[in-house]
Amino acid sequence: MSHLLEVKDLKVSYHSYAGEVQSVRGVNFTVDTGESVAIVGESGCGKSVTAKTIMGLIQTPPGEIKKGSQILFEGKNLLDMNEKEWQAYRGSDCAIVFQDALAALNPTLTIGRQITEKIMIHTDMNKEDAMKEAERLLTLVGIPNPAKRLKQYPHEFSGGMRQRAMIAIALACQPKLLIADEPTTALDVTIQADIIDLLKDLQKEFQMAVIMITHDLGIVADIATKIVVMYAGKVVETGSNYDVFYNPRHPYTQALLRAVPRLDVEEDQELESIEGTPPNMIAPPAGCAFCTRCKHCMKICQKMEPPTYEFEDGHTAQCWLYHEYAQK
Amino acid sequence: MAKLVSPLTQAAINAEEFAKVEREKSYVEASFERGLLHHLGKALKDNKLALLCLIILCIIIFSSVFAFLSPYDPDAMDVMLKMAPPSAEHWFGTDELGRDSFTRALYGGRVSLTVGFAAMVVSVIIGTTVGSISGYVGGTVDAVLMRIVDIFQSVPSLLLIIVFFSFVPNNMMTLVVMLALFSWSGVARIVRAQTLTLKERDFVIAAKTLGVSHPMIILKHIIPNMTTQIIVAASLSVASAILDESALSFLGYGVALPKSSWGSMLQNAQQYILYDPLLALIPGAFILLTVLCLNILGDMLQHALDPKLHK
Amino acid sequence: MKKFVLKRFLQMALVWILVSMFAFAIIYFAPGDPLYMYMTPGATGHKLTEAELQAMRESLGLTGNVFQQYAAWAQKMMHGNWGISIQTKENVLSLILGKLPCTMGLMGASMVLSLIIAIPLGLIAGTHKNKLSDNIISALTYVGVSMPAFWLGIMLVIIFSMQLQWLPSSGMRSIGVNTTWDLVKHAIMPSIVLSMNNMAVFVRYIRSNTITQMEEEYVLTAVSKGISKKGIMYGQVLKNCMLPVITVVGSRFGTLVTGSFIVESVFNWPGLGTLAMSAINNRDYPVVMGITMFSCTILLLGNFLADILYGFADPRIKIGKE
C-alpha cells in the first residue's frame, strides 16, 4: 500500500518576536491518488501551515521544520529535496490555490502571462502554444471569452472569476495533487458553491488528489471523502466523511458539528458555539490542547497528551475519554 | 470498544497513576498579553543601537542645558589664542576670535535644540488638531483639510521661509512658527490615518452611544490611543526642524545674531576653512549626531509598534 | 485615466494659483512703491510729478483694489512680463531663463546620480534583509538623511579641494578654460552633495518596498508554480517594486529645488539659487517673486508628470479608473 502523500510527525514552528510559535505539533495523515481529503479546523490551528509545508512554501527563518518530520510524496521525502527538485515538484506534481486570489495574483501582470509562465517552465511549449493551452484552461474552469480575458489584469476580474483563474493556473501542467487553502472563504455564498462544484468536477475528471483546507464543515460534507480535524497544531480526529459526520468521537469534532446548521435534524435544536479561545501556541499546554474548552475535561487531560484510539477502519481520535480507566 | 493505536507511552499508565493525576489540583496555563510599554522596553533592550542613540541624545541635551558649567564664556574673546588647535584647556580648540569652540558648540546646541523642539511642539499641536478633526469628522471637512495638507507638502518650504524673512525680521519666535508651519502637514497625515482606524473601534462607538461629546471623544479616547505614533512623528519632526534651521542659519536667515546655532556657526566657519577646518567640522558633527540619533530612535519606535514584528 | 489626469491637473492648478498669490504678495507688500521697480531712480535726476506717476500706475495696472491688481498682474505674468530686476535692470524672465540651464543641469545630474546608485543598493538591501550588506547600506542611509547637505559640501571642499587639490572648490568653469572635462570637474562635488539626501530616501524606499513586495502572497503563488528565486525577483517583484519609485522621484522635486539653492550657495554655482540669494539679500523683489513662481512651477510640474507617468505604468490605475 503506497500513498500518494504521507505526512509523518510533521512539526513546524515560527520564531517570532514573542517566542517560538509551535504552529504544527506532530501531524500525521495520508492522501491517496484521486482521493479528496479535507483538513478542518479553526483559524490558527496549523492547517494552512501544513498545506504550505507540503508545497515547500515555509520560509526558514522565521519558520522551522523540525527534524524527524517527513512528507513522503510517491515515497520520496520532500523535506530532503534540494531547491532544483523543489522547483520541478512545485507546479507539475503539486499545485495550490490560495484563499484571496486578488492578493495571490500579481497585480501588474496579465492573467495570460501568469498562466503561461508556469506552463513554459514545466513543458517545452513555446509562447504561442502556451497561450493556446492557457485559453483551454480558462475554458475548462468556466471563464467565458477566454481569449480576451487572457490579456486582462487581475483587478479586471470579479472575485469569483479571479478564483477560477487561480484554479486555472493551478491546473496547468496537470498536477497529481491540488491543495486548496480556504478557496471560497473570501467569496459570496452563491459563488462559493460554484467554485466547490468546479473543484469537484475537475477532481473527478482528472482523477486528481485534492486537499481541501477549510474551517467550514458545510463545504467539507459535499466534497471530501476523508476528513482530518485539526486543533492547536495537532490532528485530533481523522476518518471517512460518513464516520466523522455521523459518529464524531473527539469532543472538539462533536462541538464543531453542533455549531453547524443542519437540515436533517429536528427544527428546535439550537446551534451551539464553542466557548473560549484556542490555546497560546507559544506556550502550548502540556496535556490535551482542547481541555480548557472541553465539557468532558478530566484532570489528566490537563497534564498529559492524550493517546490515539481507532474506532472504525481508519477512524481515529486523540482523546483520554476512550481510555479504559476513564469514567463514562 | 476503542482500540488503542497510539505508540505514546503515557497511554500505558495504570489505574493508580491515572487516579493519582486526577486527584491533583487542576491548573490551567494562563495566556499572557503584553502591553505597549513592554514592547518599547524590550525594543530598547534588544536593540543596543537604539539604546546608544538615546544615551547620546541625553548627553547632548544635558550638556547643552548645563553649558554654563563650562569654565569659558562663549562670547569671551582671547586675541592671543586665535584658531588654536585642540588642547587640554580648549578641547576643540578656539575660533577666529579666540572663543572656546567646545563651549560655543554647547551654547549653539541650546539654540538649535530649542528651535527644533519648539517647532516640533507647535507642529505636533497643529498636526494633531487638524489630523484628528479631519479623520473624525470626515466628508467635506476632511477633503478640504487634506487638500490644504497636500498644498503644504508640495511647496518648496525653505525658499518660501527665506522669502518671508526678507520682509519680516527673523527671531526665535518667527523662526519656530515658520518651521512649524511647513512641517505640521506630515503629522496631520499620520494622525488622520490613525484616527480613521480608531474611530471604528468599539470603545469609541461605546463612548458615542453614551453621549460623550465629540471633542471629548477626540481628546480622551482617540488621541491618547495614538501617543506612540505621535511620539514617532515628533522625533522625526525634531530631526527635520534641526536640519532645516541649520540650513536657514547657514544661508543667513536663521537665528539672528548675537545668538548662534550650529548652523550659523557653520556659516561663520565657512570663511575660515582654509585655515581651520576643525571650526567647520565640530558644529556639523553635532548636527549629524543629534539628527542621526533622533532618526534612528524614531524608526526603532516605529518598528517596535509594527504589529507584523510581534505577531 | 482621463479622469485621473484631469483630477491631478486641477489639483496642480489650484496649488499653482495659491503660489501665484503668494508671489503677488511679495510684490504687493514689498516696501516702497512698486513703481520704483520700473524706473531708474536718480539716473536722470528728473523727479516725476504726481500726474506722471498716476499715468504710469494706470499703464502698469497698479490701480484699483487688491483683486483688480492681482488680475492685472496675473495677466502680465501670462504674457511673460515678469518685471525688471532692480539690481541689474534686466527682464526678470530672461534673467531666470538664462540661469536655468545651470540649475537644471545640476538637478538633472544629481537625480540621475541618486537613482543610479540608489536602485541597486535598495534592491540589495531589500533582498538581504538584516544581513551584513543590508545593515551597512541602511546605516549609510541613516547618515545620508541626517547629514546637513551644506556641511557635507564644506567637508568635501576641505578634503578634495584644500587637502588633495583634486577638484575646484567653487564656480562652474575655470576662467579661460572651456572644456567639458573642466565643467564635469566643477560639477562633481555639487552633484554628489545635492544627490545625497534623495539617494538615501530612494534607497530606504526601494528597500522597504522590496521587503513588502517579497512578502506579498503573489510571490508564494510564483514559488508554487516552480519559478526559481531569480525568476521571481526579475520577472515579478522588480517591476512592482520600481513602479511606485516614479511617484517618490516626483515627490522629491521640492527637496531638489531647495537643495539646489543650498548647494549653489556652498559651491558658488551660478544658477537660480545664487541668483535668488543675491536677489533676497538685495531686496530685489521682482526677481524674488519670479524665482519663487518659477521654482514652484518646476516642482509642481515634476510632481504632476511623475503621477501621470505612474498612472500610465501601473495597470491598476491605467484601466481601473475608467
Quick structural summary:
Chain B has 311 residues and is mainly α. Chain B has a single domain (32-67, 102-309), classed as Orthogonal Bundle (MetI-like fold). Chain B is built from 13 helices and one strand.
Characteristics:
B: mainly alpha; MetI-like fold; C: 322 residues; 14 helices; 75% helix
Could you walk me through the main structural features you see in this protein, from its secondary elements to its overall organization?
The complex is a heterotrimer of chains A (328), B (311) and C (322). Helix content of chain A is 34%, strand content 22%. Chain A starts with a strand and ends in a 10-residue tail after the last strand. In chain A, strand 10 and strand 11 form a beta hairpin. With 328 residues, chain A is α/β, with parallel strands linked by helices. Chain A contains 12 helices and 13 strands. In chain A, the strands form 2 sheets. An 8-stranded mixed β-sheet of chain A has the order 7-8-9-3-10-11-13-12, sandwiched between helices. Chain A has a domain of 158 residues: Rossmann fold, CATH 3.40.50. Chain B has 311 residues and is mostly helical. Chain B has a single domain, classed as MetI-like (MetI-like fold, Orthogonal Bundle), CATH 1.10.3720. In chain B, 66% of the residues lie in helices and 1% in strands. Chain B is built from 13 helices and 1 strand; from the N terminus they run E-H-H-H-H-H-H-H-H-H-H-H-H-H. The relative contact order of chain B is 0.13. In chain C, helix 1 runs antiparallel to helix 13, helix 4 packs antiparallel against helix 5 and helix 7 crosses helix 9. At the B-C interface, helix 5, helix 6, helix 11, helix 12 and helix 13 of B face helix 1, helix 5, helix 6, helix 11 and helix 12 of C. Strand 12 of chain A pairs antiparallel with strand 1 of chain B.
